[in-house]
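Worked problem 6 (solution included).
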Amino acid sequence: MGLWSERPSGPTSNDKKRMPSSANALATAASERRLLSASSLDDDERFGHEWRRLAGVRSLLAIPVDPPRREEGGLVVVFFAEQRSFSDDDLELGRRLAGAARGGLERSELYESERTSRALAQQLARMGGLLATELDPVAILDEVANQAPALLGADAGAILVVEGDELVVSAVGGETPPSALGSRLPSSARPAGDVVQARAPVAFSDAHEDERMVHDDPVLTAGHSGYLGVPLVGLEGGFQGVLAVYSQRPRVWREEEVEALAALAGNASAVLSNAELYQRVAMERERSFAILANIADGIVAVDREGTVVLWNQAAEQITGVPSAAALGRTPLEVLQRELASDDESSHHERLVSVQRGGDEAWLSLTEAIMRDPVGAVSGRIFAFRDVSSERIVEQMKSDFVSTVSHELRAPLTSIYGFAETLLRRDVLFGEAERQTFLGYIASEAQRLTTIVDTLLGVARLEAGDLQVELVPTDLRAVVSEVVASVQETSDVNGHKFVLHLPDEPLAASADREKLTQILTNLLDNAVKFSPGGGTVTVEAHRRSGNVEVRIVDEGQGIPEAERERIFSKFHRTESSRGAGGAGLGLFIARGLVSAMGGRIWVDSVEGGGSSFAFELPLAVEPALEGD
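Solution. The predicted structure is:
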């Protein structure tokens, strides 16, 4: 006696025509779940010659069995060496054998299922660990497409990503033909379209039973048959695409395999969503840092503890503190003062001063407070710009207004006082006294005119409305005249003037009136800022196509930090605060020199006097008649 079990698959009508009668008989018995017996194989027409060739087999008994988790039925076949008439006991024995076979199959199925599930779980865990360390979406897709076939022992894998109304093959693995990568399919193309519609796993043991699927899917077109696809779903429920595996031959996909691939797809979806989120955050962070790095305002951010976490390039330039020295420290440690306001509800712009090297810098500062969900301060962002120059200009304007008011008030007061005196009827003045008073009035009126002319000159320079008439002008004569005029009209306080002029004419291309104004301003400054009894030296000479004029005094000199600024409007050095004037003389002198095509500069040693020089182009001599 022998034992054999069979689970024939359902044959097609064409297959049945080609199958031996014995196979037909067994298949019918299995599908109809009925017992089949043959007492003599030699005489039974249901069994062909192939059974008779089985050595020593004369009879058989086939008992139906329902294998666990299978739709098709199966048979347990008992073979007998002798012909045998089957009794009820034989049939009962066959049924018991079938029951034992079914129990064995169930245990085998359970064991195989458990072993497969454990292996799949271990492999999923390894894959999860690999994926968790990856933050590049493209690398994640490639990794999953390669790991999915290995997970199920399949032959090929592919990931199709949703892009609008299309599915794009974005990654392939296993034996997938490289030509499939980048293929674009309609979102309704089968079998991936079935996954899109169902939002659930879709399996086909043999996709070649449907020609449309073979035509639509580039991997099936390449010759694969079995198909299993599961959805890739984002963290917020958004549909990302389809993860599919393929087998070369038809294959029945087990339930645990479907679950394993779905689990891999779930892990991949989560990791992919995190990677895409990380990429977006990283991109936004880079964009934000690029914006902050190139913005003109200084930006400083501190965390909950008040430690600097951001110090942009503008903050470096404004404060003079590099970012590396500021990060990880508090603003108090970096700038020696707090930036945070005591009033957390105030968002108004305010002025604060900080030390920048050895100087004081003024910042226009605004502050934004960040709060956590419970309302506690979680950080602060400070935005500031350097208003030191604006503050200096404002201070200079204020000083200018004050100075000009004083300069105007002094001659007006004198004029008014002498005029009131002359108008008194209770006092009789002699002719000499009247002439003296009128002389003072004329002198102060001239002084007032000079101040007004100076202000008008500044206005013309700023408006670009200054007119100059350049003609050949002998500097020797102009310098001599101006020095003589200053000696006669100014309070020279014992100053001595020394002239160094060439014997031959020194013709420059200049406007005589403007040249006189320049020399007067420079000589007035030399007298004003030199000690009593000092010497003022004036020299002029030709130098490489130009005429240079230099005025040297024996004053206190000009600090190096102020030598460029002294030609600015309203600027006055610390040593000139009490010397009077509106701080416009050098500004006008530079403007006039520039208008005539020249330049002006100063050489000075602090405590050792100053040397102001300017140069103008040499005059072009007119051509002689007949040349």
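Discussion: The longest strand covers residues 359-371.
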